[in-house]
Amino acid sequence: MNQVNYAPVMHSPQREKLEEIFYPDSDGKPMADNTLQFRWIMTIEGNLEVLFRDRPDVFVAGDLLWYPVEGRNDIRQAPDVLVVIGRPKGDRGSYMQWKEDNLPLQVVFEILSPGNRAAEMRQKFAFYQQYGVEEYYVYDPDRGKLQGWLRHGSGLIPIDPMTGWVSPRLGIRFELVQGELELYHPTGERFISYVELVVQREHEHAVAEVQLILAEARVEQVQHQAEQERRAKEQAQLRAMQERRAKEQALQQAMQERRAKEDAQQQAMQERHAKEDAQQQAEQERQRVASLEAELARLRAELTRK
Fold it and tell me: 150, 137 in Cβ contact below 8 A?
């Protein structure tokens, strides 16, 4: 895009005289003639502010007087919306070009009202063309008409068609749907009015509240499930402990029964040994008695022989 400085550079000794000239911050005209025009001005200006919120070198304003020539407070215009890329943000009473690195307005929007006359708009077009505006857009919301011009050399040439046009400076897209202007951010999001923004925020807030409630419900569900799993695990551990204790008791009882059986077997063996010892002792006693009876019989027989 060609950049041309349109304000003459003044040198001394005229400087002091020029500094005494008063440049009013208002031209005495209202910002808008009706609510429709005002709403469109605020929507475009506000969305452009949002678009360039992270760019400290982009100045966006609405209904601000532009003085392109130092020393000429009669040469001025107050565009409905203006954009200057290369100048810092900040409040200004007017845009005095010689105090702004001599940068002219690069993008201008005009929103028409029924009170705008053709001669007035021709005068504005000539002004913007003469003093360096690069992109000039005019929207008539009452008639559903959109026009645009792009700088080529020293003049502004019509943009045709405007539908689907993307601003070289701003990156925004223009659409005209059944006479209604629609502007889109480079991200594809549509320009929205303040009311739509509030509704959108309320909707987002409501959605966020629902999501928060659902998230809390999910957390409670997870916690409840975790508690159930913990209890189930504790019960399983308790059952395992009870089964282990029952198994230990069964093993202990089996050991006791085995020991009792071994004791019974040992006792039976002892009784059998005792019985065998008694039988052996009785046999020995019988044999001794038989031996004694035999000896007695022998002695009797010897006595009889004598």
Answer: no
Q: What rounded mean pLDDT belongs to the chain? A: 89
Contact 96, 25 (CB under 8 A): no
* Domain 15-191 architecture: Alpha-Beta Complex (3.90)
Residues whose CB falls within 8 Å of the CB of residue 93, separated by 6 or more in sequence, listed in order: 25
Assess whether pLDDT exceeds 80 at residue 185: yes
For residue 109, list its beta bridge partners. Answer: 81, 137
Cβ-based neighbours of 30, under 8 Å, separated by 6 or more:
none
pTM of this structure = 0.64
DSSP 75: S
The answer, yes or no, to whether residue 10 has pLDDT greater than 70, is no
The residues, any chain, with a CB within 8 Å of residue 77's CB and separated by 6 or more, are 65, 66, 124, 127, 128
d(CA 189, CA 174): 12
* Domain locations in the chain as residue ranges: 15-191, 193-306
> For residue 254, what pLDDT band results from cuts at 50, 70 and 90?
confident
The pLDDT of residue 59: 98
| CA trace torsion 24, 25, 30, 31 (10° rounding) | 150
Choose between 26 and 18: higher pLDDT.
Answer: 26
Per-residue pLDDT at 32 = 74
Up-side HSE of residue 99: CA atoms within 13 Å toward CB?
12
Contacts of 28 (CB under 8 A, 6+ apart): none
